[in-house]
Amino acid sequence: MTDMSYAPTRTQSPTTKLVLRFILYILLGVFALFYLMPLFVMITTSLKSLDEIRTGDLVSLPREVTFDAWRTAWSGACTGIQCEGVRPYFLNSLLIAIPAVLISTIIGALNGYVVAQWKFKGANIFFALLLFGCFIPFQVVLLPMAIVLGKLGISGTIPGLIFVHVIYGLGFTTLFFRNYYVSIPSELTKAAKVDGAGFFRIFWSIFLPLSLPIIVVSVIWQFTQIWNDFLFGVSFSQAGTQPVTVALNNIVNSTTGVKEYNVDMAAAIIAALPTLLVYVVAGKYFIRGLTAGSVKG
Amino acid sequence: MTRWLQDNMPKIVLAPSFIAVMVFVYGFIAWTAWVSLTRSRLMPRYELDSFIQYERLADSPRFETAMVNLAIFGTLFIVIAMVLGLLLAILLDQKIRTEGAIRTIYLYPMALSMIVTGTAWKWILNPELGIEATVKGWGFANFEFNWLVDPDMAIYTVVLAAVWQSSGFVMALFLAGLRSVDEEIIKAAQVDGIPTWRVYSAIIIPSMAPIFLSAFIVLAHLAIKAFDLVIALTGGGPGYATDLPATYMYAMAFSRGDIGQAASSAMVMMLVVFTIVVPYLYSELRTKDD
């Protein structure tokens, strides 16, 4: 238990230290329970039958494990009048998120490359404008965007939502790549220019090969943002094009029929799975992406 | 021609994004600002009519509730998430064996959408089947925990769920900050027999001032934009008890057909965000140029 690198202080006896360690681990454990409890409740509830939910309690394990609620959530639960489960909406979210993530990351990489390495008069002003744009509450663009999407003829469509996510994702992706490319010495670009390499050639053969870590951060950040989006989804989609967050909310808050709490929980877990998976597989990068720009390096 | 293309390639590459930002961020803000000064109802109208919409906002009890809720929610959410985040970071900084696993547990809510978080807590806080019923079932017949349906308490359930979702992120920020403090200073203080809590309160925490500011900015921004969580957890209810400016704006825009009110409430939200964020960004950009 004792850690040699942790220098003992004169004021603490070994017993005090042991007691303190014990309290420390208890505290950490209590907080871990607080964060895990909702997930535990969601999973157990989704595996119970409705009868058991009504008679049992929140924290008990299911007496009889049943996957009926999961089946209903996936392909039978009703979002308003339609009863196809979350499957089509899950697919919508993928159709929206994958292109939007790729496009906004590619444009962000090129923008960041310009702002960091090809400084020209006005490049910094552009960056500042973009950065301020990251912080606007989206409510302020909802109404004009609804009108513009209508004028462009992509109102309520998946390409429309991709468009919106690309536009408002640019600020963060540019920020990520700019901060990353700024640390690469500009002598490299200058030397390559002297050798006759052009703008894209330098990007393609020097910067892109160095970019894997920041691409991962950008992709994870954008995927999480877009997958978890609700405001744009609920404002700019219609019956057939809604993302999974909107469908989940419709299932949970639909007032017709018997309330199936187990189906609600199963649907919530399904809606959460992709980002949870990303988090578990690439958690380190996820944290790095979240803290990037917030902690000065 | 190709020479010109070569020389101007950086500008050409930046141009579409520049245009997009000017139109879809600044142009749209200008549009909303303009419409907030008109009598627009179901359809936007463009004849200016002074501050009529802002006067209507000021007279609206529902918007007043929304602003009071934002103040309560914002203050509690920011304070609790910061205190909890700092506490967790300090606890985790004590050379814990299972640090990686515990950090993962504290942080995973951040990966979830607010809609999922709201759905989960709505179920846990459900008075008939959630915590209240469970504790009653354990034999405490008088136990009451019906905040979700109590108009005076419902806003605190939003705080609870938001803290659950975001405090792990604050912890990660603070943990990164703690780790960047010079080890030598801490070791020297410990050799001198200065108790650990003094080392934290006198040396480590004061040196993390910039991170406190960053955490505050991020949390304040989250609080002002909070929308999904309220929609999923309470739907703004009971009545309008948990309305926030964001849900007010949405209701006006998409269910009440009152575009003037939607625009003016959105402008109020933006002003609140900008009074917090602009000085911060300004100082950030300045120090980076030096």
Automatic annotation (TrEMBL), chain A:
InterPro entries: MetI-like (IPR000515), MetI-like_sf (IPR035906). It comes from the Bacteria. Its main location: membrane. It is found in: Cell membrane. The chain crosses the membrane at residues 22-43, 94-114, 126-149, 161-181, 202-223, 265-287. Keywords: Membrane, Transmembrane, Transmembrane helix, Transport. One of its GO terms (cellular component) is plasma membrane. Residues 90-282 form the ABC transmembrane type-1 domain. SUPFAM superfamilies: MetI-like (SSF161098). It is a multi-pass membrane protein. GO terms for biological process: transmembrane transport. Belongs to the binding-protein-dependent transport system permease family. This is Carbohydrate ABC transporter membrane protein 2 (CUT1 family). It comes from Litoreibacter meonggei.
Automatic annotation (TrEMBL), chain B:
It comes from the Bacteria. The chain crosses the membrane at residues 12-34, 70-92, 104-124, 153-178, 199-224, 259-282. Keywords: Cell membrane, Membrane, Transmembrane, Transmembrane helix, Transport. It is a multi-pass membrane protein. It holds the Pfam family BPD_transp_1. One of its GO terms (cellular component) is plasma membrane. It is found in: Cell membrane. InterPro entries: ABC_transporter_permease, MetI-like, MetI-like_sf. Its main location: membrane. SUPFAM superfamilies: MetI-like (SSF161098). One of its GO terms (biological process) is transmembrane transport. Belongs to the binding-protein-dependent transport system permease family. This is Lactose transport system permease protein LacF.
